[in-house]
Design brief:
This protein is of the alpha/beta class. About 30% of the residues lie in helices and about 25% in strands. The chain is built from 14 helices and 19 strands. The strands form 3 sheets. Strands 1, 2, 11, 12, 15, 16, 17, 18 and 19 form a 9-stranded mixed beta sheet that branches.
Length: about 500
């Protein structure tokens, strides 16, 4: 009977006093730190990101939240990055220079040195249902020379792109080639090869592709002589050339590591069920060691809102109004790289996903959408995903908003076929793909400051941000205290072209 009375008392508790503790001053204080110069733009697996993680952890710890990863606040995951040590191309003892006469992808190449005495020109190197440029050729163990990808422009060549030519590289590999030279344009390159490759999650790849060098006409002529003009005109059949060609590439791989930060407020009679409140705390870092991408709205605004909601729920529990379900406050990294942190968590969950009733995800709630020309531009939030997995969720979301915050709930981006693909572009999607009901809160700021160094804390509308954060708080309160978990009665419809 006492347990019944306890639950009844909780359900009648008024969340309003605790929602009001989410203040503009506190959000601003946190944001000027999280999106400050010291955090260096918080790029995943950099010192700036680690500083931000330490700050969030200190806030969770000061609130008395339980460490969310088996005694630790941080859940670390591996991140790898390649660094170029050196690379060279020689033809008949003449050495050609990187960016002046050739480029190479640091991420897609493996350390090796090859010395060839024969090079096989195979035209475009296309193999499909209508043609096979390798027919009658033996390229096993050899280097092949390819024409530029069809349709590649001078401008594309100047950007250093390799084009979408995986199919051509795969065709060379299937026919036994061990390296590929692709004739390109736009040499010498004005944009130099970045000695740092893109970061990636797994150092073990399903497919290890051939090293491919994009080479200038100078290298092509050094191999082919006057035949290059015929090849360029498309009149030269496949041909083997005798030349001494050395292709050298050497890199090192560093384990950088990143982390998500989890703090837990334990529930009462339903403590083995969970409400997640999430945001990503990473951003784009800095360029040339001087230009900082501050990421105040994206997603400093979501990060500091999670901190403020955590404090509000802690104060409620201290006042005897703790949640029935446990609440997990999780800020993730790697979102800007491809939802890495949330992917790692949902693939390695600490708390059972089948017992996770909802993920309320916040990614940019501090600005306004300059392209929005309906309703009150100072009293709205975009809501995405509330009708995708649970038929319970949207009615609850709308009733909570009507009762407490009275924001305009805009569903502009809720269609999975929307050209901006917002449903697939933030961390809620990894929860949704595992069957967890989600709501994504978003301001639509895709204008001049999006992913620019000008996304700074001084441009945040803190009054509107408070209201949006309070909506998430009230919704989480309801999710944490209702009798039943949300139904999972709707099939997630994923368009053919996913995230």
């Amino acid at each position: 009977m006492l347990s019944t009375l306890f639950v009844a008392a909780q359900k009648k508790s008024d969340p309003t006093p605790f929602a009001k503790t989410i203040s503009a001053d506190d959000l601003k204080k946190h944001l000027y730190i999280v999106a400050g110069k010291e955090m260096e733009g918080r790029e995943t697996a950099t010192p700036g990101q680690k500083k931000a993680a330490a700050y969030i952890e200190s806030q969770f710890q000061s609130l008395g939240l339980i460490p969310g990863n088996n005694g630790n606040y941080q859940m670390k995951y591996p991140v790898y990055q390649d660094s170029l040590i050196g690379t060279s191309v020689q033809v008949n003892e003449k050495t050609f220079e990187l960016d002046k006469d050739f480029t190479v992808s640091v991420a897609q190449s493996s350390s090796s040195t090859f010395r060839f005495s024969e090079i096989v020109f195979v035209g475009a190197g296309t193999v499909d249902s209508t043609r096979d440029d390798y027919k009658g050729l033996d390229v096993r163990g050899k280097v092949v020379l390819l024409l530029p990808p069809q349709g590649q422009t001078q401008q594309q060549g100047q950007r250093g792109g390799f084009g979408n030519q995986f199919a051509r590289i795969d065709a060379a590999q299937k026919n036994g080639a061990v390296a590929v030279l692709v004739i390109g344009s736009g040499f010498p390159r004005q944009q130099k090869t970045n000695p740092k490759g893109n970061m990636y999650l797994s150092s073990f790849q399903k497919i290890v592709r051939l090293n491919q060098f994009q080479v200038s006409e100078n290298i092509a002529r050094a191999i082919m002589g006057d035949d290059y003009d015929k090849a360029k005109a498309g009149t030269l059949p496949p041909k083997t050339y005798t030349a001494n060609v050395m292709l050298s590439f050497n890199k090192t791989t560093t384990d950088l590591q990143s982390s998500d930060v989890l703090g837990v407020l334990e529930g009462t009679d339903l403590k083995d069920e969970y409400v997640f409140i999430t945001a990503h705390y990473d951003h784009l870092g800095k360029r040339n060691d001087s230009v900082i991408y501050y990421g105040a709205d994206d997603d400093g605004s979501g990060t500091v809102s999670v901190l403020e909601m955590a404090e509000a729920f802690v104060k409620a529990k201290q006042a005897g109004n703790g949640p029935r379900r446990s609440i997990v406050f999780m800020t993730v990294s790697g979102e800007e790289k491809g939802l890495w942190g949330s992917q790692y968590y949902t693939n390695n969950p600490v708390f059972p996903l089948e017992k996770t009733t909802v993920d309320l995800n916040i990614d940019m709630i501090g600005r306004t959408d300059s392209s929005r020309h309906v309703g009150d531009s100072l009293n709205y939030v975009y809501v995405v995903g509330d009708d995708k997995i649970s038929s319970d969720l949207k009615p609850i979301s709308e009733s909570i908003n009507k009762k407490y915050t009275k924001l305009e709930l805009d569903y502009k981006f809720n269609d999975p076929n929307d050209r901006n693909r917002i449903y697939f572009r933030s961390d809620h999607y990894n929860f949704a793909s595992k069957g967890v009901p989600i709501i994504f809160y978003y301001d639509g700021m895709l204008g001049a400051d999006y992913h620019r160094p000008t996304d700074t804390p001084d441009k945040i509308n803190y009054t509107l941000m408070v209201k949006r954060a309070q909506l998430v708080f009230y919704t989480a309160w309801e999710m944490a205290n209702r009798d039943q978990m949300l139904k999972r009665d709707l099939k997630l419809e994923v368009p053919q072209r996913g995230f």
